Amino acid sequence: MKDYIVRATAAHTQIRAFAASTTEMVEEARRRHGTSPVATAALGRLLTGGVMMGSMMKNETDMLTLQIKCSGPIGGMTVTADSQGRAKGYVVNPEVLLPPKNGKLDVGGALGAGFLNVIKDMGLKEPYAGQTILQTGEIAEDLTYYFATSEQVPSSVGLGVLMEKDNTVRCAGGFIVQVMPFIEDSVLDKLEQNIQKIDSVTAMLDNGHTPQEMLEQVLDGLDVEVTDTLPAQFYCNCSKQRIEKAIISIGRKEIQSMIEEGKEIEVKCHFCNTAYAYTVEELKELLKKSR
């Protein structure tokens, strides 16, 4: 099944909700970066959260960046997403290995202490930037805390990535549920009861639940109305031309020293790990452009 995001409201617009299946997106990220199981789970959760948060933005050119800087062995992560269900990301140390904790991949241990930075570029003079301290490093709780403290929107975030024995991605997805300021106490109580009794995201996905069915569980008895769906995918907009601009920006001196080495160079995109090769002749052309 192709990845997609569902947007919905409930309790007569007192609640807005998002849910996503991201199995193919997370597997694509794993394949491109060669991530270990715990790194796949960490990056997969951040990609899933990021692609849903990206879909909350209004304009086609809006961009969201989620950046985790942390003390744990994973070294940090960055994800960017747009408003059309496209996301990309990478981890600093994709090969990190940790023993399981309580039978599960120890994402919190991989991240350790640190900060979550959320940057929204909405075409204004300055991008919006919010920073919160990591609460558990498990990512769902960290995003929940971010929404409550930086955006003052009480939210519940559930994220999950389940791995196969061969370390490929079995299933991935999540949900974000947010309550409006005018929510009635009875609706809030019902929502809290639902969240306490639902299965984990990975259990729901592994049982074949679609994003709609996940939201029906989370918002049981609260009149869910799906407003729209959009496809989700791992997508990187890098190109040889974009990388050329990056090479030009490092300056004439650096380019000249590469030329003098007399060898072809290879530059990899951080986000998707695509390699771009440049011959000495191409570097000479870039040197001319850097004047």
From TrEMBL:
InterPro entries: Heat_shock_Hsp33, Heat_shock_Hsp33_C, Heat_shock_Hsp33_N. Disulfide bonds join C236-C238, C269-C272. The keyword Disulfide bond applies. It is found in: Cytoplasm. Under oxidizing conditions two disulfide bonds are formed involving the reactive cysteines. Under reducing conditions zinc is bound to the reactive cysteines and the protein is inactive. Coiled coil: none annotated. SUPFAM superfamilies: Hsp33 domain (SSF64397), HSP33 redox switch-like (SSF118352). Keywords: Chaperone, Cytoplasm, Disulfide bond, Redox-active center, Zinc. Redox regulated molecular chaperone. Protects both thermally unfolding and oxidatively damaged proteins from irreversible aggregation. Plays an important role in the bacterial defense system toward oxidative stress. Belongs to the HSP33 family. PANTHER family: 33 KDA CHAPERONIN. This is 33 kDa chaperonin. It comes from Faecalicatena acetigenes.
